[in-house]
Amino acid sequence: MKYEKFFELAKAQGIENTELFIRKSYSLSVSLFHGEVDNYSSDNGFSVIARGLINGKFGAASCDVWDEEKANYLIDAIVKNAKVIENNDPQFIFEGSPKYKKINTFNKDLAKISLDVKLAKLHELEEKIKAYDPRIHEIEGVFYDEISEDVILMNSKGLKLSQKSNYYAYAGAAVAKLDGQVKTNMDLLLDNNFDKVNIDELAKKIAQGAVEQLSGEPCESGNYQAVLSPNVVSSLLRAYIASADAEEVQKNSSLFKDKLGQKIASSKVTVEDRPLDKTIFAKSFDDEGVATYNKDIIKNGTLETYLYNLTTGAKDGVGSTANAVRYGSKIGTAPTFLVFKPGKHTQEELFKTVNNGVYITEVSGLHAGLNPQSGNFSLQSSGFLIKDGKKDRPLDIITISGNLLKLFQDITMVGNDVKVFLSATSCPSVIIKKIAVSGK
Amino acid sequence: MISKNLAILVLNEALSTGADYAEIFFEDSHSQGITVENGKVETSTSSSMCGVGLRLLLKNQCVYGYTNDLSKKGLLALASSLKKSFNGTQLITVTDLEVIKAPNRNPIIRSYDDVSREEIIALVKEGIDEINSLKDPRIVRTIGSFGANHRFVAVFNSKGKWFKRASEFGRLAYMVVCADEKGFETGFEGPGCQQDISYFGNVVNVRKTARKAAETALKMLTAKECPSGKMPVVIGNGWGGVLFHESCGHPLEASAISKGLSCFAGKEGEMIASKLVSAVDDSTMPQAWGSIDIDDEGNLGEKRVLIQNGKLVNFMIDDFNGRRMNREGNGACRRQNYRYCPTSRMSNTYICNGKSTPEEIIAATKLGLYAVGFNGGSVDPTTGEFNFGCSEAYIIRDGKIAEPVKGATLIGKGEEILKNIDMVANDLDVGQGMCGAASGSIRTNVGQPTLRIKEITVGGRGGELK
Are residues B184 and A374, on separate chains, in Cβ contact within 8 Å? Predict the structure, then answer.
């Protein structure tokens, strides 16, 4: 059935304003264990989210099969769901932005490379991790994933937008062992240009990350000056910027409420949303169809804007910032490609500046140990001591605790060692004036 | 639904290049979600999910794919595409499919399909009214929600077996955000079941549940920062079981054990915990959140004793990972939906009752932490290193529960923590959660009686415990 038929069927039921958000994907995943393919999957995914505006209220429903029976299911559910909505927020079926920037997030050459070539690299990755160091005891697995996705947004007002994207990822997880102590490390490489595959570098990062954690023990509990790795900054930054969601602000549960135009972070902190940069995360329109643009969220410590979709933008009288994202049938907001602006210093210079302190390389359990509303966190961490200006011995079984607002106020220096993460975030290392570490 | 004859055709197509096992997983599910924010219905959404996952095994290799095209052509195309991973000749031919007889401990009495949105809204609002009756200006946001899910699955496999099963789940949840000049705190309660809507009212006290979410948030608003360092910790019953789920449950799944990637691999028959600890993963608890009568590859649900008086005796096993262990699956093979390849997972996992009382445990603790509310956690099954975050905790002073503290996270290694349990009470209770792992997000119960860990690392910002 053609998608356009849905709008006719809805109209026949008296629903004038409707919208379809369609996602078609193809994904391939292969993993190796001990040199053999242990998992292979190849999937064609499809999902459609339909919304209809009835008396100013949105009804929403979704499905993953497309035929007339399902279209009628969606329409019936839209009517029943819209009927019970009591919230009076302004709602929109969007007519379209005047102009959309052209972006290219699809590399057609990726599909042309044979599976044999892709697999050969995967075998190479497994072998090179193993060969890196005799303390590499086991390889949990090496993984190749390839995803290509088509997103289509169309509505009864004649708007029809689509974007095609693809990327691949090579990943591996190594287990290092020494004297009964076991440490693991996982890392990945992400791109859509196959020429950029560098197995040597990835294997080294995976293996080294596991081996260098061996022989660690906790440090004394206390407050330390700290260098946070790009990885840690990325995890904490995502949680911090969630407070810029205008819906959270309007509903009184954001750390950034009443802080617009105010200094909320150290002047070393500039955070931008850059959907139009040439990355695999780029988007020319958001999930409501609004044309995206690059913007500062925090500039030299000052909060420049909240992130809006059409509804929250209308409530504040400012319009959408093109940050709408769909969580199932619900429209929220999120940055598209979040960039923490790097500084000029190398990571070694950061260590030298701290002189004696801790270097935190990983935090885990963010869903349990970080409260996005209060900003308080206490997280299982890994890292190293910094002694006499240099990275020293590894730390085992520690936590770092703090509050996100305070943490970003306490940044005293920003590195130039930028890394890009799967969470669509680009971050350097930073120095934090003081962080509570729990160890011995 | 696909017919038996079509299933046989697809299985044989899949097996034609030498796979030693093939399995079709058909799913037709739908769900309804409603959220009420600050007293008004904000969202009401419906979703439907229908597809087929096909899994082929050959020795230690697994090939998986899914499709939404349920026509004969679509299913045969999926089988033809996946079978290309193997290049042998057909070893097994399926000629007939016999139905697997499974008990029905989780029957649908009154389907959520027959419950109107208005009835659900009235239920959610009952709790919201209770929160509003507190008239506390520090409550700045209340979110009540209800999610109902109907799941129909059918499995056909090359052992010549098939079954179909429908199940339904309901979950009521309240989240309350409180604020004062110092900042925000939240409280959450989310009871769930594999029963009809009358459970909420008959078994769960809706008003009490909602009030508890608000009271926790308000209490934590006045709490001081949790101290840090190593200390004795008493862990409350019910949701406290997330400790065992993370520190021990995940490392006892065959997915980690079979490849030697678990801190407990090769330790069957050894003492891995204090003698006071016995632990169980029980898929057979009637109408419980994590129960299954039959798993996603056709093995019947079981009550698995994992640890008996400290000794490791069993694991959660699926047939595929069981191959590396020379063991058969024991009904623990699960997946979120047809888009996921299934693997060994937990169901209702808990530490069994001991002989102490909760009061005795508190009284026997001079200075320590009493953790009663939890946000969940995570674990690396290979190293055994785990963490879990506390949403509600108190300091114990001289054998009495004293001031509330916030922001506590407990971390450690599973092997060490289990050996450090030195008191176990007799007040076993379970709590409902969603567990995320390789085969997606699935419903699991966690549980335990009140127990004490004589020393564990606590992360917090409050400095040394004095």
Answer: yes
- pLDDT (0 to 100) of residue B451: 97
Tell me the pLDDT tens digit for each residue of B254-304: 999 999 999 999 999 999 999 999 999 999 999 999 999 999 999 999 999
Confidence of residue B192 (pLDDT cuts 50, 70, 90): very high
Calculate mean pLDDT across residues B37-62: 95
**Under an 8 A CB cutoff, do A65 and B68 touch?**
yes
Cβ <8 Å between A70 and B34: no
Cβ distance B261 to A140 less than 8 Å, yes or no, reads: yes
The three-class DSSP label of residue B233 is strand
Distance CA B13, CA B70 (A): 15
DSSP B248-312: IIGGGBHHHHTTT-STTTT-TTSB-S-TT--EEEETTSTT-TT--SB-TTSPBP-EEEEEETTEE
pLDDT of the residue at B187? 93
A432 to chain B, any CB pair closer than 8 A? The answer is no
Return the amino acid letter for B445.
N
B335-341 average pLDDT score = 96
Query: What mean pLDDT value characterizes chain B?
Result: 95
Distance CA A277, CA A300 (A): 21
pTM above 0.90, yes or no: yes
Which value, in Å, is the radius of gyration of the alpha carbons in chain B? 24
How far is A177 from A136, CA to CA, in rounded Å?
7
Find the mean pLDDT for residues B87-103.
96
CA atoms within 13 A on the CB side of B89: 0
What is the least distance, in Å, from the CA of A240 to any CA of chain B? Answer: 14
**Whole-number Cα distances in Å, B144 to A91, B38, B127, B130, B250:** 22, 8, 8, 12, 31
Distance from CA of B68 to the nearest CA of A (A): 6
